[in-house]
Design brief:
2 domains, 10 strands, 10-stranded mixed sheet, alpha/beta, Spore Coat Polysaccharide Biosynthesis Protein SpsA, Chain A
């Protein structure tokens, strides 16, 4: 077992060019969505890169696939649109060494989109039960043994290529909290993320709020109304949709979750 490993979901890769693009200098597992099935390996810089290529669709399924092949004591979840700092691995391992009780640590990235900044912290601190968890998957590092002991898996209903467009990262963190994992946020910046293209984010539009409604109907089934009011305030200045339309599509998402209808299927059933 290695001390550290990156678990990255990607699509249609034919080689290991992502190592250079992402500035990877660590062990890594790529869960590669493509139209073939194969396992390839590459030794580089004293590290091992593995590419698990399957025709499996859905980001949750592929994160789980990477998890099944994980061997690092500390693992970092990844998307293929990030670029790491040269000393990323040292920074992450340093934080886990400094906080031996931590099961999971959230790290900071800079963003190329001023409308989607990644909140940072002036000091490393414990995440408490009352704290919000607005962190995308690529910021999460965790102890593999703790995740296995808690039987943590990604939902296959939410995220790119799934029934509902997003939320798999928040659900994973929600489950981690429920199962008692000790979580920290770190002051360390370990790379930068690009939002030039996204497999699911098309703006603060109908699909976005549909996904929000579906997510909260699943995670907070008895307090959806409260989270709808929170979304009303949280996203009041985001996008060009009216508040009425935003909340309409939030409610549509909650209904769509109960009927297990994707955004496209919901529109075809009720708005065709």
């Amino acid at each position: 077992m290695s001390a550290f490993e990156i678990l990255c979901t990607t699509m249609h890769q034919k080689d290991f060019s992502k190592l250079k693009e992402m500035n990877i200098h660590s062990d890594v597992v790529f869960a590669n969505q493509a139209d073939r099935t194969e396992l390839t390996e590459l030794e580089f810089e004293g590290h091992r890169a593995r590419m698990i290529t399957t025709s499996t669709r859905g980001v949750g399924k592929n994160r789980n696939l990477a998890f099944l092949h994980a061997e690092g004591e500390i693992c970092l979840l990844a998307d293929d649109d990030v670029v790491y700092a040269d000393d990323m691995e040292q920074r992450i391992l340093g934080e886990f060494e400094a906080h031996p009780d931590a099961d999971l640590i959230i790290f900071h990235f800079t963003s190329d989109d001023p409308t989607r900044p990644q909140g940072n912290y002036t000091k490393t601190k414990r995440v408490r039960p009352w704290h919000r968890m607005p962190w995308p998957t690529f910021r999460i590092a965790f102890r593999l043994s703790a995740a296995k002991k808690a039987n943590l898996w990604f939902t296959t209903l939410y995220g790119g290529g799934c029934v509902f467009p997003s939320g798999e990262d928040s659900m994973w963190l929600h489950d981690a909290r429920k199962k008692g994992l000790r979580m920290y946020v770190s002051k360390e910046t370990i790379g930068k993320v690009s939002y030039e293209s996204s497999s699911w984010f098309t703006g603060y539009d109908e699909k976005y709020f549909y996904g929000k409604g579906a997510y909260h109907a699943s995670v907070h089934p008895h307090s959806v109304w409260f989270w709808k009011q929170y979304a009303r305030l949280r996203f009041r200045n985001f996008g060009t949709m009216s508040q009425k339309e935003k909340m309409k599509w939030f409610s549509n998402g909650a209904k769509g979750y109960r009927d297990m209808l994707s955004y496209k299927a919901f529109k075809e059933k009720y708005h065709s």
